[in-house]
Amino acid sequence: WFCFVLFFRLIFGTLYPAYYSYKAVKSKDIKEYVKWMMYWIIFALFTTAETFTDIFLCWFPFYYELKIAFVAWLLSPYTKGSSLLYRKFVHPTLSSKEKEIDDCLVQAKDRSYDALVHFGKRGLNVAATAAVMAASKGQGALSERLRSFSMQDLSTIRGDSSSTVPPSVTVRTSSKQSQPKPSRSASEGTGSSGK
Predict the structure, then answer these.
(1) Were 21 and a residue from 36, 64, 75, 121 both cysteine, which residue would form a disulfide, CB within 3.0 to 4.6 Å?
(2) Where is there biased composition of kind Low complexity (predicted)?
């Protein structure tokens, strides 16, 4: 049932009035334009109030049916609910409080701009600090990694530990030692036969 209410509200509370608002703007009919503007103001107030009433009154019997009936009443050309509510309640209230509302909006705009600038500067400072720290840690980690590789290579070449010596180095060392011995004996043999 809740989904049906949402569907009804979407179609008849939002899309239908939006299309007729478009037609009013396109035809430049001031009477229709004013009628749909009054509807949108009332609908915006209804949507705002609905956010809170859904939390506290959703348990109330026929609550969702009443919401459907209210939207239908607002739209009906016979009841002219949105025009009635606007002219009887909203317009007089907003007219009497307009200066205070405008002052509050200007203050809120200024405060939000100041807060945005303040938090923007802080965010940029935090991001810059994080980038510098990451870069410095990254360079340190890279140099440590290279240093560990070079120290391992040096220990391998020195032959500090036999377990870390790669087989290719051992083979080269043994092949170099074994090659000169036969050539010395061969040279000695040829030298003795020449005498």
Answers:
(1) 36
(2) 161-187
Token pair of 161 as six digits: 């530990």
Nearest to 1, CA basis, from 57, 49, 51, 58? 58
Contact 42, 74 (CB under 8 A): yes
> Backbone phi, then psi, for 104, in 5-degree steps?
-65, -40
In this structure, the dihedral spanned by the alpha carbons of residues 175, 181, 186 and 191, taken in order and rounded to 10 degrees, is 150
Answer yes or no: is 149 within a domain: no
At what angle are helices 16-27 and 30-57 packed, to 10 degrees? 160
Cα dist from 97 to 102, 104, 125, 146, whole Å: 9, 11, 42, 72
Print the domain residue range for 95. 1-122
Looking at 58-90, list the stretches that DSSP marks H as alpha helix, in order from N- to C-terminal side. 63-75, 81-85
- Report if residue 156 sits inside a domain: no
Determine the number of helices (DSSP H) and then strands (DSSP E) in the chain: 8, 0
pTM of the model: 0.54
> Domain for residue 164, yes or no?
no
